[in-house]
Amino acid sequence: MKQVLRALAGRSLPVTHRLRLARDVLRSGGVVAYPTEAVFGLGCNPRNEDAIDRVLALKQRSPDKGLILIAADYADLRPFVLELAPERMAEIVASWPGPNTWLLPARQGTPRLLTGRFDTLAVRVTAHPLAAALCRAFGGALVSTSANLASRPPARRVWQLSRRLGARTDYVLAGDCGGRSQPSCIRDCRSGRVLRA
Question: What pTM does this model have?
Answer without folding.
Answer: 0.88
